[in-house]
TrEMBL record:
UniProt-listed PANTHER family: DOXORUBICIN RESISTANCE ABC TRANSPORTER PERMEASE PROTEIN DRRC-RELATED, TRANSPORT PERMEASE PROTEIN
Subcellular location(s) of the protein: Cell membrane; Membrane
Family: Belongs to the ABC-2 integral membrane protein family.
Highest taxon, organism lineage: Bacteria
Protein name in the entry: Transport permease protein
Keyword Cell membrane: yes
């Protein structure tokens, strides 16, 4: 069986398994747009602010909602799936086939990226229809978004590949989840932080992603530093995940 055929077979099998238990997709597809919709109900969030360059708080929460879909997939869903496979010895059976670790990680990455795309599309729809929140520079936003999803899924693959059990993956994912929500601006807009704090947060994948998307919302091209940070996280986490992936 060729490498391409094997990868397709693994993707097909993982797709069928995911569709049998769609409940986990709620947090990726429904939660971020719902959060955006709820936050938009706050009157002050819909008022332009001079401190935000004339933007509204809800405008800055649109990038946060987009990145939140990737966070939910990479930290709360994908690691749980793969680590459960490991715990139930499903990965051991995979290891006896022509499938490689990269095939399984690729399949899970594709499926969760698809769910992230749907969730992000709904968030954009809620922002646009309900609150007239728009992204002025769509091209630069798309670039940052793709890199952000890749970086998050690479980090999720790292957790999934190394965690020995579903419980451990859940603990690690939860421990990383709340700081990730902060760096994504869920608790407080990143651009409203003091300069030194913004610079530190910008070195994290979600901080760099949100800052880059905020620049796109304002119609600007993202700072190259944000793009470099996202690429670096993707390459490093992805390489370690593939190299040290544990079948058992």
């Amino acid at each position: 069986m060729s490498t391409t055929t094997t990868a397709r077979a693994v993707l097909g099998a993982e797709t069928r398994l995911m569709l049998r238990e769609p409940g986990a997709l709620f947090w990726i597809i429904v939660f971020p747009p719902a959060l955006l919709g709820i936050l938009g109900l706050i009157p002050d969030f819909r008022t332009p602010s001079e401190d935000l360059g004339g933007l509204r708080t809800i405008d800055l929460y649109l990038p946060t909602a987009l990145i939140l879909t990737a966070i939910m997939a990479s930290l709360m869903t994908m690691p749980a799936v793969i680590s459960t496979y490991r715990e139930k010895l499903v990965l051991r059976r995979y290891a006896t086939t022509p499938a490689r670790a990269g095939d399984l990680l690729f399949a899970q990455g594709v499926l969760h990226a698809g769910a992230v795309l749907i969730g992000s599309g709904l968030a954009l729809l809620v922002g646009y229809v309900a609150y007239d929140a728009r992204i002025a520079a769509l091209g630069s936003a798309a670039l940052v978004y793709v890199l952000a999803v890749a970086a998050n899924l690479a980090c999720g693959a790292l957790i999934a590949g190394l965690a020995p059990s579903a419980k451990t993956a859940s603990v690690i994912g939860t421990a990383v989840f709340f700081p990730s929500m902060f760096t994504a601006g869920v608790w407080y807009p990143i651009s409203a932080l003091p300069g030194w704090a913004e610079s530190i947060v910008g070195l994290t994948p979600n901080g760099a992603a949100v800052l880059g998307l905020e620049q796109a919302v304002a119609g600007d091209w993202p700072d190259p530093v944000h793009l470099i940070v996202l690429v670096a996280w993707t390459m490093l986490a992805g390489a370690v995940a593939a190299r040290y992936f544990r079948w058992e």
